[in-house]
């Protein structure tokens, strides 16, 4: 394959969020051209996605030596600092990048850096002056855990859209093991959709107190008796925290029975349609 063919493959893999394929293709390009700007730039975002932050900075240094006007370097660094909640450094990176290119992703990151620094009025003013497709200030507030400010600044999102954004935040936090913050998000979801089933799953999975886990699991099982996940969460807690083998077995048996019924129904539905 030619370099151009490989670059096309990069674009395709990135569009499909296929980072393993993207990494392989980038490596093929860099074997032929070690300073290829496009491949190195994709590498930045691969390492951001995998949260290999030391490699982000290493590749960023490599890029800046040969491609000093690459604004993605500043964007990737800003992403790292935002994830580490080093908002002042994130803001500096965004401003440096925006000097090179008025890039929408840098604008988004700058908004969140400002919010993280509690400069929310300034962030809202900057957002209002920006043209960022499919980006809402409420989403930025959620990304920065500024839930109490949502009503103050208003939202163009429906209740369902707002709940979906909060679940996106739960997933982001879950991948990083930030359980206490997940519990905060779940409470925001319950304000909008009381006893939401998925929010209860996130809550139970994020609790650390075993008594609280049992209490919440029992509550969820009463509300959603067909959800086997609540039974498995209870079984795990009974087994490992309380050494209640009989109780755990009972929950496992009920859970596996429900899971089996669900799999059969799914198979039949797929077979029919």
Question: What is the strand and helix layout of this fold?
Answer:
Elements: H1 3-15, H2 19-32, H3 37-49, H4 53-66, H5 71-83, H6 87-100, H7 104-116, H8 120-129, H9 137-143, H10 150-153, H11 159-175, H12 179-192, H13 197-206, H14 210-223, H15 228-242, H16 245-272
Helix pairs in contact: 1-2, 2-3, 3-4, 3-5, 4-5, 5-6, 5-7, 6-7, 7-8, 9-11, 11-12, 12-13, 13-14, 14-15, 15-16
Write a structural description:
Among the domains are: 167-206, no CATH class; 210-273, Serine Threonine Protein Phosphatase 5, Tetratricopeptide repeat, CATH 1.25.40. Helices cover 78% and strands 0% of the residues. It has 16 helices and no strands. α9 (137-143) packs parallel to α11. It is globular and about 65 Å long. The protein starts with a helix and ends with a helix. The relative contact order is 0.04. The model is unreliable at 267-273 (pLDDT under 50).
Provide keyphrases for this structure:
single chain, 273 residues, mainly alpha, Serine Threonine Protein Phosphatase 5, Tetratricopeptide repeat
Put simply, the count of helices is: 16
- Percent helix among the residues? over 70%
Termini distance?
Answer: 40 Å
- Estimate the mean pLDDT confidence: 93
CATH topology description of the domain at 210-273: Serine Threonine Protein Phosphatase 5, Tetratricopeptide repeat
The general outline is globular
């Amino acid at each position: 394959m030619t370099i151009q063919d490989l670059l096309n493959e990069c674009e395709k893999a990135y569009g499909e969020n296929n980072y393993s394929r993207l990494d392989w293709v980038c490596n093929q390009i860099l074997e032929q051209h070690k300073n290829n700007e496009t491949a190195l730039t994709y590498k930045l975002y691969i390492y951001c996605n995998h949260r290999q932050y030391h490699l982000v900075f290493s590749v960023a240094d490599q890029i800046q030596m040969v491609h000093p006007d690459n604004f993605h370097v500043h964007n990737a660094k800003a992403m790292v600092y935002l994830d580490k909640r080093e908002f002042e450094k994130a803001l500096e990176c965004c401003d440096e990048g925006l000097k090179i290119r008025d890039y929408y992703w840098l604008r988004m990151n700058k908004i969140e850096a400002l919010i993280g620094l509690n400069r929310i009025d300034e962030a809202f003013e900057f957002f209002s002056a920006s043209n960022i497709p499919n980006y809402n200030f409420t989403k930025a507030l959620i990304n920065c855990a500024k839930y109490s400010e949502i009503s103050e600044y208003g939202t163009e999102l429906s209740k369902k859209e707002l709940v979906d954004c909060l679940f996106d935040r739960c997933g982001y936090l879950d991948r990083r093991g930030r359980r206490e913050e997940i519990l905060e998000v779940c409470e925001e979801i319950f304000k909008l959709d009381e006893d939401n089933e998925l929010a209860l799953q996130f809550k139970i999975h994020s609790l650390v107190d075993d008594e609280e886990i049992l209490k919440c699991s029992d509550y969820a099982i009463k509300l959603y008796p067909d959800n086997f996940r609540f039974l498995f969460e209870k079984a795990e807690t009974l087994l490992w925290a309380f050494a209640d083998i009989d109780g755990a077995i009972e929950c496992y048996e009920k859970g596996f029975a429900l899971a089996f019924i669900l799999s059969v129904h799914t198979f039949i539905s797929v077979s029919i349609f």
